[in-house]
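Students often ask why inverse folding is considered easier than folding. One informal answer: many sequences map to the same fold, so there is more than one right answer. In these notes we will look at a single instance of the problem. The structure comes first.
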């Protein structure tokens, strides 16, 4: 959902790290080498590189804990050219530092052979505090500390016309936020003036409470930008707050956004303007239109609005007089949101306030209440706005809260009830039904995508698809699979063509007199639209001649939705009536919406079978979407005796030997249960043609690893993720290693044990080194870089654990609760059955809660299942 930009791949200096860790046994073993060790320490001290050293005689429990953290910090400090060492004063005596005290509680920072600063071990108690304090001491001259507004104003006067300022507020020194700020200073210190505050009156000038309990950052625009008179005449530098939690990656993205042009002028239609590129990939774009007669006025208005939206959106001014601009005159505003591809939405707005409201959350509820209690608390929450929401763990609920004021109603979607459901399904060739719960965050989020698909189908004049919704909180009898509602005038009572709905949201494709087809893809607009478009096509398509077969395989408009490249399956049979046809029809019906299927018979089938080296019929040919060969070559499968066996064979044939992992295909490959040999590549490597060649070269080497790995590679699943195309890949990489390393990065994930191994970044990714590394991992010669988290899928926020909330209810809660069904009057016998069913369902839920393991080792149990 939210991804970050690579930051830790900057060109930081690298030096060797001096590690002199010794336990008591090692100290005594090195007794005869104390002189050499002291000489080595002196050499490092005089190398001109910073050195962070602890001198000690004895180790107490507190010192032992500190030494563990000191060892962990060695790798982080190594990135900044800082060495870490521990000197055992029982073995070697360093004058002035190895004192007569047995338990020493000081650690020292040297630079250029001089003592820069000393710290109490209590002050540098973990990795964050060690890294932040050490960097703060080394970069002391590059960071200014302020406490009052007068201090800040003096720095603004000094910086005016020269450089911009970044002001960071942290609750206290030595925290993770302090470390993030100092890491940013290390990279950008020569470009911006950095300011640090830990509180005081300066917060009031920044619009914050003196008791603020969360870190923050602001960008002060003190360097004059072209076209801005305000900056030259104002006494203070304009402020832009960073609206995300303070971290290294968010600071990097924020600074890149501040460095972007305030206003860009374009001479093409908004639909043809490319979306922002990393690291601005997740920034909205706002388009305003300029007319020839009011060009200067439009430019002034756009500049004013650009300052209002600084840090929220990229503003572009479109000149209508350009012949490339095709936007109708009725629209004066357009915008593109991140995560929605290249889709541009057009609006007609009356003033700047309406435009601003597109991106700025309106507050003030607390001011309007004027009272205390619950209303005042709600107002405070509303006033805080996005900065608080950005730190919520449940991102779906976060999105729902942000969009709580928007309407999800659509004229393209029909809301059905138990009374009209069966009649509506019988009247349409294809009904796409969304079963949801109004109070469920995921359901509400997906409703927006569902409505977008319905609108897109209506705009495309597709009349054979009926988009409907069913609120299972109201029509529980229908969602439970009960044959309710008025019987038709003629014929038997309606039979519900689906099993009880137990997971929300659920999408079913329904046809008259046919079993329901369940949509199991991702809950997004593009994936659902592609599934519906493929489901409209016949399955299989009868292909009578070679021309039809060629069009089918090449992706003709009548057989393939625009913008997609689905897999294809061909069934080859002697006649239409042979027994294997029924097996093929059953399998392709189950694959409808996911693959395109066709069928050949007689001489045409025999010819195709001979071309694929299998003259005997029946035969099934599988063509992966990535294989666009001419003539096309597919995988030949013998037709098994059942549809389930054929489905398994087709699924295996569609899997690539070294796939590119995406959000859509990840579950299919995880279901194999094989450890992942996962390569991460990204667009930051593709800034020029040389970078693109390097990426292609790395992928070629990895395919060579697959081909030359033999039995070793058969145990793993070699795969790769492109961070530019799969935005969640950055978060995956950061969650695995704790940070984003330089790309390309190769990770080995042992799924059963949870161990993670990181291929050395300084070793080129080539066939022989990678195979040697894999061999050393199997021999236990490599140390894990980390471990995966608990694979069980549980709610991130306790509030959303509905089952736990229900368990806290009084005994008999589920038995006392009778499902509601508005508009349906049940006899007392049916009501008793409903109660029994509710009790049974409650038992099933409790059993599911006691055993959270899913039926498949890689398929998490549904979070939102309730009836």
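Output (designed amino acids):
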């Amino acid at each position: 959902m939210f991804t970050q930009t690579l930051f830790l791949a900057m060109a930081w200096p690298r030096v060797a790290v001096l590690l002199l860790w010794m336990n008591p046994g090692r100290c005594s073993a090195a007794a005869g080498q104390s002189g050499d060790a002291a000489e080595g320490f002196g050499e490092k001290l005089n190398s001109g590189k910073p050195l962070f050293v602890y001198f000690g005689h004895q180790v107490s429990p507190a010192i032992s804990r500190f030494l563990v953290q000191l060892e962990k910090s060695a790798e982080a400090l190594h990135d900044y050219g800082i060495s870490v060492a521990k000197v055992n004063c029982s073995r070697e005596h360093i004058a002035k530092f190895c004192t007569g005290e047995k338990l020493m509680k000081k650690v020292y920072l040297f630079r250029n052979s001089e003592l820069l600063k000393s710290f109490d071990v209590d002050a540098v108690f973990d990795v964050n505090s060690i890294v932040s304090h050490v960097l703060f001491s080394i970069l002391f001259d590059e960071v200014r500390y302020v406490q009052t507004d007068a201090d800040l104003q003096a720095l603004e006067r000094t910086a005016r016309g020269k450089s911009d300022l970044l002001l960071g507020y942290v609750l206290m020194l030595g925290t993770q936020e302090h470390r993030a700020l100092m890491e940013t200073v290390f990279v950008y210190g020569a470009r911006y003036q950095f300011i640090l505050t830990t509180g005081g009156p300066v917060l009031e000038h920044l619009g914050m409470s003196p008791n603020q309990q969360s870190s923050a950052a602001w960008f002060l625009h003190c360097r004059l930008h072209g076209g801005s008179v305000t900056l030259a005449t104002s006494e203070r530098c304009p402020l832009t707050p960073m609206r995300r939690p303070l971290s290294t990656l968010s600071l990097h993205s924020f600074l890149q956004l501040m460095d972007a042009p305030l206003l860009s002028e374009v001479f093409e239609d908004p639909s043809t303007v490319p979306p922002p590129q990393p690291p601005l990939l997740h920034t909205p774009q706002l388009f305003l239109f300029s007319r020839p007669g009011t060009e200067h006025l439009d430019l002034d208005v756009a500049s004013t609005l650009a300052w209002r939206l600084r840090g929220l959106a990229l503003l572009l001014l479109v000149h209508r007089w350009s012949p490339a601009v095709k936007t109708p005159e009725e629209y004066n505003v357009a915008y593109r949101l991140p995560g929605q591809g290249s889709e541009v939405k057009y609006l007609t707005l009356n003033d700047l306030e309406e435009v601003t409201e597109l991106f700025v959350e309106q507050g003030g509820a607390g001011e309007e209440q004027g009272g205390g209690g619950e209303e005042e608390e709600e107002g405070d929450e509303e006033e805080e706005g996005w900065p608080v929401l950005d730190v919520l763990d449940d991102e779906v609920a976060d999105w729902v809260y942000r969009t709580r004021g928007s309407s999800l109603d659509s004229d393209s979607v029909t809301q059905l009830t138990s009374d009209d459901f069966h009649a509506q399904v019988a009247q349409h060739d294809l009904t796409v039904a969304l079963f949801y719960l109004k109070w469920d965050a995921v359901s509400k989020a997906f409703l927006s995508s569902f409505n977008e698909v319905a609108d897109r189908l209506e705009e495309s004049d597709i009349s054979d698809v009926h988009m409907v919704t069913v609120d299972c909180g109201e029509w529980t009898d229908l969602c439970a699979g009960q044959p309710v509602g008025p019987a038709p005038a003629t014929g038997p009572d309606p039979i519900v063509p689906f099993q009880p709905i137990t997971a929300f949201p659920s999408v079913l494709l329904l046809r008259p007199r046919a079993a329901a087809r369940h949509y199991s893809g991702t809950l997004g607009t593009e994936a659902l639209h592609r599934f519906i478009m493929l489901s409209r096509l016949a399955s299989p398509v009868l292909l009578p001649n070679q021309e039809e077969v060629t069009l089918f395989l090449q992706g003709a408009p009548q057989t393939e939705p625009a913008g997609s490249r689905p897999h294809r399956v061909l069934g080859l049979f002697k006649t239409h009536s042979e027994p294997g046809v029924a097996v093929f029809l059953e399998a392709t019906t189950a694959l409808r919406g996911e693959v395109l299927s066709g069928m050949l018979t007689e001489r045409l089938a025999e010819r195709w079978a001979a071309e694929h080296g299998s003259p005997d019929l029946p035969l099934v040919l599988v063509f992966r979407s990535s294989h666009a060969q001419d003539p096309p070559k597919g995988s030949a499968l013998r037709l098994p005796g059942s549809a389930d066996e054929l489905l398994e064979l087709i699924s295996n044939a569609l899997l690539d030997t070294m796939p590119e992992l995406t959000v859509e295909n990840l579950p299919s490959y995880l279901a194999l249960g094989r450890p992942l040999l996962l390569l991460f590549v990204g667009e930051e490597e593709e800034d020029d043609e040389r970078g693109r060649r390097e990426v292609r070269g790395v992928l070629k080497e990895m395919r060579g690893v697959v081909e030359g790995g033999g039995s070793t590679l058969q145990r793993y699943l070699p795969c790769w993720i492109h961070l530019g195309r799969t935005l969640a890949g950055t978060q995956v990489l950061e969650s695995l290693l704790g940070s984003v390393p330089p790309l390309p990065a190769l990770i080995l994930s042992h799924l059963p044990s949870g161990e993670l191994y990181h291929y050395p970044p300084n070793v080129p990714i080539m066939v022989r080194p990678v195979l040697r590394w894999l061999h050393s991992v199997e021999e236990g010669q490599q140390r894990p870089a980390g471990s995966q988290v608990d694979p069980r899928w549980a709610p991130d926020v306790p509030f959303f654990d509905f089952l736990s909330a229900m368990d806290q209810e009084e005994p008999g809660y589920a038995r006392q609760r009778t499902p509601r069904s508005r508009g349906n009057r049940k006899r007392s016998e049916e009501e008793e059955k409903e109660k029994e069913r509710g009790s049974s369902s409650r038992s099933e839920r409790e059993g599911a809660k006691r055993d959270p393991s899913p039926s498949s080792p890689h398929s998490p149990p549904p979070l939102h299942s309730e009836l």
